[in-house]
Amino acid sequence: MQKIAVVTDFDGTLMEQDVGDVIMEGLGVINEPQVTLASRLFREKKVGSLAWIEAAYPMLAGRQEQVDKLIEDVYLRDGAREFIDFCEQKDVPITVLSDGMLYYIEQILGREQVEVDRIIGNPITYLADGEFQFGLQNTNPACKWCGCCKASVVKQLKKEGWLVIYIGDGSSDYYGSGFADWIFARARLARYLKEEGTAYYPFETFHDILNIIRPAWDSFLSSTATRRLQERFPAACKF
């Protein structure tokens, strides 16, 4: 039997809310002219998330207290703790993979006492002295579409011999999920996959995911579980 790794998005997936949106809307960043322009270009698919991140996130400089206040009321998606416990029992590593801000991911998971094997996101954070640090995870010289290159993370896991279960909800997950073995999708990601005819498992809570994988665990381990992807490589990904 092979080994399985789980990769899950954070905003709108592991979390009930899109925390980045909560922050940007709560602080009015979403209404700033350069962010409005970046949002329009993103919707028109003329730019990727990297351009939007570069327009929006620097505006969080000097606003740590406000950010901390806004993230107080966000919470994990129903069933997330049970799913993480299941993975721990099965020795399945979990990577939280986000195109968002590393600061709020680490703050929320720490507050909720959630431990995962890896957290990968854009290195945007507040340092110990309160100084704002801006950075991007994407070091792929061939493609600067996304701030966080989710495809590269999944491809590396595959190269290391893992079977990958990908869980996501958004546009950046379209690229990361393209190199996984099985996809659990909701919201925009589910719509994208449905439109292109790609097999996936729909979900709204992590209980839905557990209801699929728990009774069929042996078939996932043997790589015979249904809806396994067959050579789906998103055209926008360049390596």
Would you write up a description of this structure?
- The chain has 239 residues and is of the alpha/beta class.
- The strands form two sheets. It has a six-stranded parallel sheet with strand order 3-2-1-6-7-8, with helices on both faces. Strands 4-5 form a two-stranded antiparallel sheet.
- The longest helix has 11 residues.
- The mean pLDDT is 94.
Q: Summarize the amount of helix as a percent range.
A: 40-55%
Number of helices: 12
Rg (C-alpha, Å): 17 Å
The main pleated sheet reads as: 6 strands, parallel
How would you classify the helix and strand content by structural class?
A: alpha/beta
Described by the principal axes of the CA atoms, the overall outline is: globular
Spell the H/E element sequence: EHHHHHHEHEEEHEHEHEHH
Spatial strand order of the main sheet:
3-2-1-6-7-8
User: What is the first-to-last residue Cα distance?
Assistant: 30 Å
Mean pLDDT over all positions: 94
So what's the oligomer here?
single chain
Strand content: 15-25%
User: Which stretches are poorly predicted, pLDDT < 50 over at least 5 residues?
Assistant: none
Number of strands: 8
Task: Identify the notable features of this structure and list them briefly.
about 240 residues, alpha/beta, two-stranded antiparallel ribbon, 12 helices
